[in-house]
Amino acid sequence: AGGGINGRRVRLVIEDMAYDPKKAVLAAQKLLNQDRIFAMVGQMGTVTAAATMPLVLKAGLPHVFPVTPAELFFEPHHKLKFAFFTPYYDDIRTGVKYMVQTHGKQRVGVMYQDDEFGANIVKGVRDQLDAMKLPLVSQTSYKRGATDFSSQIARLKADGAELVVMSTVVRETIGAMAAARTLDWKPTFLTSQAGYSSAVAALGKEVTEGLYAGAMTPIPYAEGASPELLDWIKRYRARANQDPSFEVVVGYMLISTAARGMANAGRELTVDALVAGLEKIRDYKNIFGTPPISFTATDHLASRQSFVAQIRNGRWVSLSGFMHYKN
Known about the structure:
Elements: H1 21-33, E1 40-41, H2 46-58, E2 63-64, E3 81-82, H3 88-103, E4 108-113, H4 116-131, E5 136-142, H5 150-158, E6 163-166, H6 170-182, E7 188-191, H7 198-204, E8 212-215, H8 227-240, H9 246-265, H10 271-279, E9 307-312, E10 315-318
Parallel strand pairs: 1-2, 2-3, 4-5, 4-6, 6-7, 7-8
Antiparallel strand pairs: 8-9, 9-10
Helix pairs in contact: 1-2, 3-4, 5-6, 6-7, 9-10
């Protein structure tokens, strides 16, 4: 806006793939062949981005900041792959370590989605418990799209889990906690950043009160915001007539970080120049309060740090500073 970047106009082309890998491939083919995009930035979802990333890389274009913490988007290292979010594995290991050390939880169970997302969560939980010489007392899975979690919750209860770690998104988080409420069971629930959403607090209401989550980006609330963030919130309200959701923050943050790389690239914007421009981003602190963002020629992941938050009185409250399980 207002002149673009280094005198170049930036055109943002958006396609809706309905979170369907097949539709995502068709959308990517259109973007590559008809719209002739310069880079794929901020694609939504693990399974959809995994289906289309090979097309983007084959075309010799940068695949930048997909909206997923899955490790395949930065490992193995590839010149054209850049990832933003703390990996699920690091996020959940850090969260489990915090809950055991800070809240004394010793009997840990896990409820996971039966796919790669869930496998990352289970591995993180198991590895952290092994490091702390604690057993995993219960493990149960559910299929993607499930709406009934009564059998999984009943098993976790029967096995005596006092901390339930979940690989859940919005609907599944609320559904699992509602099932526990029906059984009059009150364990402590911890989810990954996939379940850290303003929608979980807003839609879950009293059901999700007390839920813990690992996260990388604080949800923006006007109360307590820095002057710069408050100004951004007010400008968004004026334009959209509503408060910014966490998803809005993610979209803005990813595009603005990509734009910083474009600015670093200079006026001659080639693929190599954009890659070099992104790799020049070091210790960048955005207005939203994420950990400092850095890239190098050998590391295209923005950060491995996360913090722990909890829903209190219908809002997410940060409980810790940025941490990593190795520290």
